[in-house]
Amino acid sequence: MQRATGKNAARTVGGGRYAGSVSSTAPGSSPVPFAGEDGRTDNDPAPAGSIAPGPTPVAPGAAPEGRGVFVAFEGGDGAGKSTQVRLLADRLRTVGQRVLTTREPGGTPVGERLRDLVLEPGDAVVDPRTEALIFAAARAAHVEQVIRPALTAGRAVVTDRYVDSSVAYQGAGRGLGIADVEAINAWATGALHPDLTVLLDVEPEAGRDRRADRAAEDRMEAESDDFHRLIRLTFLQRAAADPVRYLVLDATLPVATIARRVAERVLTLADGPLPALSEAGTAAAPVAEERADVILVPESVAEHR
């Protein structure tokens, strides 16, 4: 299910288990864990489909023709994103796709360190502007070292959070301005957009209840319900402004129902042509039927655009 995509068909990436023939360890360097098709590293025995804590950079090598589909899951804390990432990856593998699952912030050794710094800073003060730049730096490494090489090598990439989270949390939630946060992330990612963004919509109160069994909340999760309401509103506004790229689903629906709807949409994308990686990743989507498990963005949200 790989497609030739013009100039991208000739691009070369890969290495370690991406290419199957190129070592991930440079001469004279120490061996490092390497991300596999299921997002795991060689030192991580987690089950297939689990989210990797830190894939390492991909070395140059030969790439197959075409590129993989890029899917991002977004939504408030407690929406069930990590579960749906795993289920989508499992479904794609059943139809022969090679899949890399990952997360943000994180996804690389540098990104994981930055994740700890910004989410669990201890006594350190992390002001909003610094917070936004840390997330952008982690994302730059993630795209350059993991996401773009995997896509070019023909892998499907499924990520738990991407740029929309920064726009919602830092641009709106922290009051830095959506345009500015979009700009720094466009530069950080080389304007790489997902082919599909799945927004799992959840009321802040419901998300908090779902997180009740977690050991402790991080800085973002511990914010007020008003903060999380603004995050939700921003996600919905972005989805309303670009309905082709977004699939908005009620996160309180049965897990299997959400997984089915996501798989239907992603498999349609994977069967069609995808844009070059240097271009915006908006891909054509089928005209959606009106279904009970698809959220229609309310007019009150659209009016705030």
UniProtKB/TrEMBL annotation:
Name any GO cellular component annotation. cytosol
What's any GO biological process attached to this entry? dTTP biosynthetic process
Q: List UniProt keywords, sorted A-Z.
A: ATP-binding, Kinase, Nucleotide biosynthesis, Nucleotide-binding, Transferase
Give the range the annotation lists for the signal sequence: none
Chain spans, region Disordered:
1-63
Q: Where is the Thymidylate kinase-like domain?
A: 73-259
Q: Can you state which reaction this protein catalyses?
A: dTMP + ATP = dTDP + ADP
> Which Gene Ontology MF annotations are present?
ATP binding; dTMP kinase activity
Q: What does the record give as EC number?
A: 2.7.4.9
The entry marks the following residues as binding ATP, namely G75, G76, D77, G78, A79, G80, K81, S82
In terms of SUPFAM superfamilies, this protein maps to: P-loop containing nucleoside triphosphate hydrolases
Q: Which InterPro entries match?
A: P-loop_NTPase, Thymidylate_kin-like_dom, Thymidylate_kin_CS, Thymidylate_kinase
- Cite the PROSITE patterns for this sequence: THYMIDYLATE_KINASE
Q: What NCBIfam families does this protein map onto?
A: DTMP_kinase
Recorded family membership? Belongs to the thymidylate kinase family.
Q: What does this protein do?
A: Phosphorylation of dTMP to form dTDP in both de novo and salvage pathways of dTTP synthesis.
- Which HAMAP family did the record assign? Thymidylate_kinase
Protein name, UniProt field: Thymidylate kinase
Task: Tell me the organism.
Answer: Tersicoccus phoenicis
The organism that produces this protein has a lineage beginning with: Bacteria, Bacillati, Actinomycetota, Actinomycetes, Micrococcales
